[in-house]
Design brief:
Helix content is 8%, strand content 37%. It is mostly beta strands and 659 residues long. The strands form eleven sheets. Strands 2-1-3-4-17-16-13-7-10 form a nine-stranded mixed β-sheet. The chain has a four-stranded antiparallel β-sheet with strand order 18-25-20-23, with no helix packed on it. InterPro entries: Class_I_gatase-like (IPR029062), TAT_signal (IPR006311).
């Protein structure tokens, strides 16, 4: 039986550094332990505007509570940024009005002479704005940005009855269902309510993205207009701040109720909590925080998607030909444009020959590295962590021959993400001994596994890093791992061949809400035949800080024994220089090429003894890669041990871990 994949149990395990690599940015990252930022929010003085829709009015009581709640926003909150509310601003705004303010909430009044210039300067210097309008003749606060605005519909008899809700809610634009405001850290928003006086955007500035539309018709025969839009940071200039714009000032208010006998100023019995509008408000401020943190160079964290999103499936468009590169944008798969790295599962399906796939950031030259190695007629999947090019784009290259390619996005690195806690390899499921409550998985069987609260992972963890192994499968099939309580995704995590033991790294979100049969649990599905399953916990994501910093290197090949020397013989250990002097650990991709026997490679620090572990498991004649993160000696050197037969070895450098 092949050597079962194991991990070294040293102070910094393979997984600590591997998951730390998820926090890497396109440039050297700041220490993850840096204090989360505090952003100051302010609105207008309601005593001067004479209206009720300013941030400091009772109508935004719930919004103020949401953004200052440390469970939502704060060092240990869902989003690692704190919002504080400053005193209301005197209007009209002057050149000094917004000094010391990071986010300006503009709602419920018309702009006065000279204020547009003040706001333009504020945004150009990195200030964020959340602004809302109710029509060109009633609270116009968006045309200064270039939005076209319809006149308003009025629902309800001017605040004297209970029919203030628009007859149909605004709904997410299909192409933006995975935008972070619509599908963010606080949940997904498919619809949200509009209230009483509602307008629509007839046109958007080129820098804006329309996120939601109203299905209703507005004055001037304006049908299905955009009612929510966003302008990302940097869109209005290199240092410009992010903007959220709505065409209904009550999108984020708690002003209206459909249960009171009448509406009048001060009646704020409605609530944002538990509604689509409430989730939208939380996600909007989370997006503002992420955009600003990215601009400020603050270390990113990992964000798990609710479920994996398939970003590419060439079976519907034609295979990727030999020596062909395809560029892929991941913004439609839930990855924001300010993300710096993505976690994907890459699968080669039915290749016509032996070859490999390389995945790397768009806008850069093809590196001499590989992520997935395959032989003709097999389906092979492998996890990959890829630095992103501009606008969340990656490139995929196929070597000679053709193959279908699947890309499933499981998460990304952004400023509003969680931090990693290492627990050391801990086995929580082994069907051979019924550990985890189940025997071997049979055909078309789904097994549920409790992960959080098991000792290795605490309750409240937001995600988990696992090593999942299929042992002695009886058929060609696959395993899929996903959060409990969600529909089974179309992707696979491990592709099996009868009699072959296969392991793969899996990053999966842990549900933090729902029933006891959902919270902290994952599902594992076996497609065909039967197989034993091992699950080892390597680390988990939480909202606590993690120490250390990571630098993502431009991927490059550091070793190729086919060119620079002889293959590694059975029982041979070879010292390799990585070129990363002073690094605590190095992040590398290690590939066994043309092995002559079944065996494994072990990678370990050059100044330490060999551990009882393996990093790459291989079979005779079949290339096998794996992502490895390992301590390095002071000069950055490592050692590689080969257990059996002879094999060539490739080492591709991806990054370094310091601290």
């Amino acid at each position: 039986m092949p050597h079962t994949p194991r991990l070294r149990r040293s102070a910094l395990t393979v997984v600590v550094a591997l998951c730390a690599s998820l926090f890497a940015t396109a440039v050297a990252a700041s220490p993850a332990s840096a204090a989360p930022p505090t952003y100051v929010v302010a609105g207008d003085d309601p005593n001067q505007t004479g209206e009720f829709w300013g941030l400091h009015e009772s109508y935004f009581r719930d919004l103020r509570s949401i953004i200052t709640n440390t469970t939502n926003f704060g060092p240990t909150g869902t989003v690692r940024a704190t919002f504080t509310i400053a005193n209301a601003r005197t209007v009209p705004l002057n050149a000094n009005s917004l000094n010391g303010i990071d986010v300006y909430f503009l709602s419920g009044r018309d702009l006065q002479s000279g204020e547009q210039a003040v706001l333009n300067t504020f945004v150009a210097n990195g200030g964020a704005v959340i602004t809302s309008s109710n029509g060109p003749s009633f609270f116009d606060t968006t045309t200064w940005l270039g939005f076209g605005l319809s006149d308003r519909n009025v629902y309800g008899d001017n605040m004297v009855d209970t029919t203030h809700r628009a007859p149909s809610p605004s709904a997410v634009v299909a192409a933006q269902v995975n935008h972070p405001i619509m599908n963010g850290p606080f949940g997904s928003v498919t619809t949200f309510d509009n209230w009483h006086s509602v307008a629509g955007f007839t046109s958007l500035p080129a820098t804006a993205v329309g996120l939601a539309r109203s299905p209703l018709t507005f004055p001037g025969s304006v049908t299905n207009p955009v009612t929510l839009a966003a302008i990302p940071a940097g869109a209005l200039g290199a240092s410009s701040g992010p903007i959220v714009a709505t065409s209904d000032i009550d999108t984020f208010s708690n002003a209206y109720t459909v249960s009171a006998a009448a509406f009048h100023p001060g009646d704020d019995t409605n609530t944002l909590n538990g509604t689509g509008n409430g989730v939208l408000a939380r996600n909007a401020f989370a997006w503002i925080a992420a955009e600003k943190m990215q601009q400020d160079g603050i270390t990113s964290g990992y964000v798990s998607l609710t479920n994996p999103v398939r970003a590419l499936d060439t079976r519907s468009t034609g295979p990727l030909g030999g020596q062909v590169t395809r560029e892929l944008s991941l913004t439609g798969a839930g990855v924001p444009v300010n993300a710096t790295m993505v976690a994907v599962n890459v699968t080669a399906v039915d290749p016509t020959g032996s070859g490999f796939l390389t995945v790397w950031p768009a806008d850069s030259a093809l590196p001499e590295v590989s992520n997935v190695n395959f032989v003709a007629g097999t389906t092979v999947a492998n996890a990959a962590f890829v630095k992103l090019g501009a606008n969340a784009r990656i490139s995929i290259y196929n070597s000679p021959g053709s193959t279908h390619v699947l890309i499933d996005v499981v998460g990304y690195v952004a400023s509003n993400g969680s931090r990693l806690v290492n627990v050391g390899p801990t086995r929580i499921k082994d069907t051979r001994s019924n550990l985890g409550g189940s025997g071997q998985a049979s055909t078309n069987e789904t097994q549920t596994l409790q992960v959080a609260g098991t000792g290795a992972v605490p309750n409240g963890a937001t995600g988990v890093i696992l090593n999942v192994t299929a042992v002695d499968p009886t058929a060609t099939a696959y395993l899929t791992v996903w959060p409990a309580g969600q529909a089974q995704p179309t992707g696979s995590n491990i592709n099996t061949v009868a009699g072959t033991t296969v392991a793969n790294l899996v990053v999966v979100r842990l549900p933090t809400s729902g029933g006891t049969d959902v919270v902290g649990r994952i599902n594992l599905y076996n497609a065909a035949g039967s197989t034993q399953i091992l699950v080892d916990v390597l680390g988990y994501y939480t909202n606590a800080a993690a120490a250390g910093s990571v630098t993502a290197e431009t991927p490059h090949r550091q070793l190729d024994t086919r060119v620079s020397g002889s293959s590694l013989g059975a029982g041979e250990t070879r010292t390799i220089g990585t070129g990363l002097s002073g690094a605590t650990a190095v992040i590398i991709n290690v590939t066994a090429v043309d092995p002559t026997a079944t065996g494994y490679l072990t990678v370990f620090p050059a100044d330490r003894s060999q551990p009882d572990a393996s990093n790459v498991n291989f079979y005779a004649g079949r290339n096998a890669p794996n992502l490895v993160v390992v301590h390095s000696a002071a000069d950055g050197s490592i050692k590689i041990f080969n257990s059996a037969g002879a094999t060539h070895v490739l080492v591709d450098v991806i990054g370094r871990f310091d601290g």
